Amino acid sequence: MSADVVHESNHRRTFAIISHPDAGKTTLTEKFLLYSGAVQEAGAVHAREGRRSSRSDWMEIEQQRGISISSTVLQFPYHGHTINLLDTPGHRDFSEDTYRVLAAVDAVVMVLDAAKGIESQTLKLFQVCRSRNLPVLTFLNKYDRPGREPLELLDEIESQINLRPTPVTWPVGSGDEFRGVVDRRTGQYTKFTRTARGASAALEEDIDLHEAAKEGGRAWQHAMDELGLLEAVGADVDLPSFLAGESTPVFIGSALTNFGVRKLLDAVVELAPAPAPRTTVGGTPQPLENAFSAFVFKVQANMDPSHRDRIAFARICSGTFERGMSVTNARTGRDMTTKYATTAFGADRETVDLAYPGDVVGLVNASGVLIGDTLYGAGYEGAAVEYPQLPRFAPEVFARARPMDNGKAKQFRKGLEQLDEEGVVQVLRDPDMGDTENVLAAVGQLQFEVFAHRLGSEFGAPTEIVSAPYQAIRLTDKQSSERLRQIGGIRILTRGDGALVALFENKYRLQRLMSDEPELTLEPILASGEAH
Ligand code: G4P
Question: Which atom from ligand 1 is nearest to the alpha carbon of 254?
Answer without folding.
Answer: 23
